[in-house]
Amino acid sequence: MGSTGVRIAIDAMGGDHAPAEIVAGALRAREELGVKILLVGDPQQIEAVMPPKTTMADLEIVPAEEVIAMDEEPLNAVRRKRKSSINIAMDLVKNKQADAVFSAGHSGAAMASALLRLGRLPGIERPAIGTVFPTIKAGKPVMILDVGANVDCRPKFLEQFAVMGSIYSQYVLGTENPKIGLLNIGEEDTKGNEVVLRAHQLLRENTQINFTGNAEGRDVLSGEFDVIVCDGFVGNILLKFAEAVGGVILQILREELPQGIHGQIGTAILKPNLKRVKQRMDHAEHGGALLLGVSGICFIGHGSSQAPSIFSAIAKAKEAVDNQVLERLQSQYQILQEESS
């Protein structure tokens, strides 16, 4: 077992580049982070993509007979394919054989499996997928939730997202007294639909969080907010748009900077800076998204995730375990329920 004792169950069969990229990222995490890796999937396929002479120290292959494809209806597939890689990975967490789980496979199946096998935290009505974005302020990320778990939300759900996001921002991202914003079409308190207006009122009245008001689309990456809450329909569109914009900017830099001898010289001089730009803008550098609200640490990655993204997600999962995010969420909600009773 690694020096930290943290055990991460990996759905080795989930994702567009499974199992090769999943295994590569997991092996790097084992070496650099000192975690124990449990690769769940077809042992023959997993072993085939391992580098020669890979040692099995802090590494275990857990057999799984089935895989849930991206085009399958998630809940039915999770129930039908009980021996799928995502289900067995979740069972490892449920049975305390792993401290966290990661999957780059079917995100709906990952969430359904987490709900069925791990269950919700007491007091949480709906879990939310939270992801971290860079902002224009270096070293000051913003967490957005929900980015896809709940297409329709009640005001109470948004309030619960805010509390969960605040806890994560404080104890994992190291933000003191996180500023919470509600994504809206205007900064005025009177803007928005009925759900947002009611959510605004609940957030204002909640003494457990530092709610600072509405956040417009232009505020998301401003660094003025530490956590921004929205429903999963809006959040998922925001997530994919922001990632696309980041990719476009990086591609433009690659195409335009090398033009001519002056461009080549400039590129050589700016290379360290460009590397930092990529680290701040490229979603692959920020790993997966955390499913907050279930009774276990569960990270969900892009289907297109490659080794760097896998490594980053495992690093985030380790941070969540080390910082006792699950325990803090449970205790905070116990306090909340006691205060409201």
Rg, Cα atoms, Å: 20 Å
| DSSP strand content | 15-25%
- Taking pLDDT < 50 over at least 5 consecutive residues as the criterion, the unreliable ranges are none
- Mean pLDDT, to the nearest integer, reads 87
What is the strand arrangement across the widest sheet? 3-2-1-4-11-10-5-6-9-7-8
What characteristic shape results from the CA principal axes?
A: globular
Distance between the termini: 44 Å
Task: Describe the protein in words.
- It is a single chain.
- Helices cover 46% and strands 15% of the residues.
- It is of the alpha/beta class and 341 residues long.
- The longest helix is centred in the C-terminal third of the chain and has 25 residues, at 232-256.
- It is globular.
- The relative contact order is 0.16.
Briefly, what is this?
This protein has 341 residues and is α/β, with parallel strands linked by helices.
